[in-house]
Fold:
Amino acid sequence: MALTRDLVRIPSVVRPGDPDANEAAVAAYVERWMRGQGFEIEVQPVAPGRPNVLGILGERGATPTLLLEGHTDVVTEGDPAAWTHPPFGADLVDGKIYGRGAADMKAGLAAAMIAAAAIKRSGARLGGRLIVGALVDEEGDMLGAKHLCTTPLGRELSAAIVCEPEQNELCLEQRGVVWARVTARGRMAHGAMPEAGANPITALAALVADAPRLERRLRALCTRSRYLRPPTVTPTVIAAPVAGVPQSNVIPAAAHATLDVRLTPGPDAAAVAKEIDEACRRAADRAAGVTIDWAPINGFRLATRVERTEPLVRAMVGAVRRATGRSARWGGVPGSTDGTILRMELGIPIVTCGSGGRTRRRRRARGRGAHLRRGRVRVPRAVSRPADRSTARRPRLRGVEAFPVEHDGERYLALRDPAGYTSSVVMLPMALLEIVSLFDGAHDVDAIQQAVLRQRGEHVDLARVEELAQALDQHGFLEGPRFEARRADVDGAFLAAPVRPASHAGGAYPADAAALAAMIDGFFATPQGPGPIKRAAGGGSPVCALIAPHIDFHRGGPAYAWGYRDLAERCSADVFVIFGTCHAGMSHPFALTRKPYDTPLGAAPIDVDFVEAVAARARQDCFAAELAHRNEHAIEFQAVFLRYLFAGRRDVAIVPVLTSFVHEALVRGRRPENDRRVARFLDALGETVAASRRRVAFVAGADLAHVGPRFGDAEPVSRAEATRLAEADRRTLEAVTAGDAQAFFDDAVRDGDARRICGLSPIWTLLRATGGAPGVLRHYGQTPDPQCVVTFASVVF
Structure:
């Protein structure tokens, strides 16, 4: 508390033009304090009177290196007379410290300093280095963070905790920002003769009117986040003329506008720039003789995301539970921070977490200087234990699957969790659809009651709404502390397990080994199957790859058999790289795991050396989305068949690779290989196959189309529509059997994802991995339910 008050009492508002208004005084205080605690100190001059101060614990060269980051500058205090307490008085009243920068972020900086000093005093031996960084200019151009990234010490950083005021939530995502400075150039003319000129204001007006369209296109590029607002495009500045004195009767030669573009994770700078370029082109087309160009003010600060599997995140989750006795609460940062620069420039994982309300930062995210009139931070008593929020009073439905079903002649809305955090399937009467649609976290139960009353003229009892919310929360369908605890337990158990459990045994297929083997025997022997395997048959070209379904066995079992019989008879591989669809989607294009895939027929072992070699060569974190393997069935079903074919006959291993990137490429209007991560992974895979002394084959677990009311279509699939669907699928399969990944993707572009082909990513990856080898279609099938038609195929290469 005393350290925070001392820091607040030192003004550190940066006022351009005033050489004494900077961070110098508070930086000197921080330096003296840390020297007094025995830290090694590095001072980095960034600009006159604006030094970064870094306190270092641990031996030089030791790794990893963790940064606890804070900034020393604060925004303007405005009119001091408008404050109820002096802006730099650091008054302590009713357990709160009042003052400019108390929350943002001198309390966070003080907490980092105190924590590191406590570690120093404890004599604990560090397994690397710990650095406290007090950086300048976070409220401006982030010069301090940018400078740090260019220094030897900065380049040694392994991870960072950014101590911004985020209500003690662990924030793994940060919204990005691009300030697009747009210049329209026309031709000056007298207002009485507008035809003699070209009006740049008209072009900027068209651009402003087009901002909602640009916003929609950016939202299509960006991934949805449960913790961040969707992307926004806000015109914030319009100025004309850009030079000289404005005159009411003169069309200016040029005009400026600024668009404040906020982003969630997903697109890179080139994709964002392309959309802004297109918006400027559309605006210029509406004003003859006007040209428009633009440039980013202070560059691109892209949105960032870190996965929960990062060692830093897992360590912080455990620390929160040990300190508070509760599960960590998750959140997102509504604006950009120094962590944005650290993540973009160094590629290190960052977590933003600090005490203090987020309200001040949300206001700042709309524009520099738009803070509350006063800053304050509550002084904790020992450890701050965050209070539980009432999920039932302001319910928010998770990103679950919703689809219509009929039961006993009645229509229901079924809710199912594709991520597998709950095994429950909730069936809601259609009368409750309107109520549940308002479970968005923005409406409390009173607002839901009023909304239903306005829309239907029906009074809904508040207790009924709360009971519905409580029931959904109990089954794991609502965001909130209960679900976060459930997810932490499930994810923690998976990460700690030595093998990946057989998640779908006992449901999609028998958990008993003998019953499972008998079921698969039947897939070969049925009239729809290929007949028994002839293991000594020989003959025919060797099989190097297989596309098999991942539909549940009882609907697609014979289709699996058609492909796997060729694999058993004509493939000598002892390593099978399995590409699977990640139905829930991932922020990374690929996810590896080192965990053997368990099955009732024994665990399918992993070629760990192969996995590690691919990960090392790919120059990306191939394990960041490893949790996606936990409940995904696309690879599990292939592991079951491989164990059926080879267990006890020859030793084979698998390399499980979940994929998710082709749909994203379709949305962004780009080819998959234009994503550098995809290209690097394919190169790494090819190099690893070439260097391996083992025989390698590829398997893709991939279904084709998904149509009907179950998937969002208005009407059941008729026989004529099923026939047209088969024709479209066979055109797609022509590109597949030709081994042509480019033609396969072009077919998906033409289709516009109308068929919802879920196997785009694994099939495209297999076609690239096999180098264009031709294939043979062994089987094509459709499920017969017109409410829910899934198509699938087996193709042998």
About this structure: The chain has a mean pLDDT of 89. The chain is about 35% helix and 20% strand. The radius of gyration is 30 Å.
